[in-house]
């Protein structure tokens, strides 16, 4: 399925919004599909071969030509944000929220919690996981990364994602959120399965957002439609996970990490690579000439 080149932020906002079902906002995008795509809204993509990240341009042109694409190599000299930031999400209690295997990630639809990032008020929409990490920190990658996706409270077109790296610990002590979700994961091993996530402690996350230094840059969704205008906050506080909890996530998620993108403002990596390939027209012409020669010989 081909999507119109670049999805406006308004379209992304309505994909994210709880209220609008979004049947009309972009022709073929539905909220269910948006959920299926982790951050993004395109269901047909994968992390394998012909539908994998180097070919995501077939779903949305922003993936192959956008100049502020995510993820990137975060370097510790980048601009940081911390003063006044606030991600004091309440622990998930007895009522619980859907924890769904979308086929692209596992995602907790924990909505409505307030956050303050870079002076802007946001509302949490959901959070999901990647193995291995999508961002790197001074070129180091981590076994996992969790993304907290937010929408602007006053301006729904504003999107912010907080990324937190997750690393294994020698003492095998998991962050309490990770151990709780690793248990629940056993109920959603197959795409499409949902379990109600109850009693999920989030103290590690609160610390990684409120008290930590966060590297910030203008980026995009890391899944098709790769829409830009997303403000990223990558925390330098790392959550711990035991080896067995990590393996539980890894076996359900498989590999769901987009390849590294160019630094903000630089040429798109796919577009850059494509210029070294013979143009499609050249190949079609060469084929025609070969066929013409073959015809002459047989005539
Ligand atoms: C939770 O998941 C169930 C089963 O997939 C679905 O029917 C329900 O609408 C979801 N609830 C919310 C609030 O998303
Ligand atoms: C951590 O867990 C792994 C796998 O379960 C195990 O092999 C290893 O011995 C554990 N390490 C410690 C310090 O308990
Ligand atoms: Zn993500």
TrEMBL record:
State the UniProt keywords alphabetically.
Answer: Lyase, Metal-binding, Signal, Zinc
Question: Where is the signal peptide, in residue numbers?
Answer: 1-21
Domain Alpha-carbonic anhydrase: residue ranges? 43-296
Main EC class the enzyme belongs to: lyase
Top-level taxon of origin: Eukaryota
What Pfam families does its record include? Carb_anhydrase (PF00194)
Q: Identify the cofactor(s).
A: Zn(2+)
The record's comment on protein family reads:
Belongs to the alpha-carbonic anhydrase family.
Q: What does this protein do?
A: Reversible hydration of carbon dioxide.
The name on file for this protein is Carbonic anhydrase
């Amino acid at each position: 399925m081909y999507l119109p080149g670049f999805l406006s932020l308004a379209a992304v906002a309505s994909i994210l919004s709880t209220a609008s079902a979004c049947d009309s906002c972009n022709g073929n995008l539905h909220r269910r599909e948006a959920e299926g795509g982790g951050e993004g809204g395109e269901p047909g993509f994968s992390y394998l071969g012909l539908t994998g990240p180097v070919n995501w341009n077939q779903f949305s042109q922003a993936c192959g030509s956008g100049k502020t694409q995510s993820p990137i190599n975060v370097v510790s000299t980048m601009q940081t944000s911390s003063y006044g930031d606030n991600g004091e999400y309440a622990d998930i209690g007895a009522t619980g929220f859907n924890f769904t295997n979308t086929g692209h990630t596992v995602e907790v639809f924990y909505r409505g919690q307030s956050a303050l990032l870079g002076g802007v008020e946001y509302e949490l929409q959901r959070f999901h996981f990647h193995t291995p990490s999508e961002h790197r920190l001074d070129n180091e990658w981590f076994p996992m990364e969790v993304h907290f996706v937010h929408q602007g409270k006053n301006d729904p077109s504003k999107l912010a994602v907080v990324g937190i790296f997750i690393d294994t610990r020698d003492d095998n002590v998991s962050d309490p959120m990770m151990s709780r979700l690793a248990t629940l994961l056993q109920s959603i091993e197959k795409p499409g399965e949902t379990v109600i996530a109850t009693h999920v402690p989030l103290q590690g996350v609160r610390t990684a957002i409120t008290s930590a230094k966060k590297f910030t840059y203008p980026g995009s969704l890391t899944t098709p439609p790769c829409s830009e205008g997303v403000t990223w906050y990558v925390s330098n506080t790392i959550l711990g996970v035991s080896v067995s909890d990590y393996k539980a996530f890894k076996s359900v998620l498989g590999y769901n990490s987009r390849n590294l993108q160019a630094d903000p403002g630089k040429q798109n990596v796919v577009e850059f690579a494509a210029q070294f390939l013979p143009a499609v027209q050249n190949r079609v012409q060469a084929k025609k000439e070969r066929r013409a020669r073959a015809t002459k010989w047989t005539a």
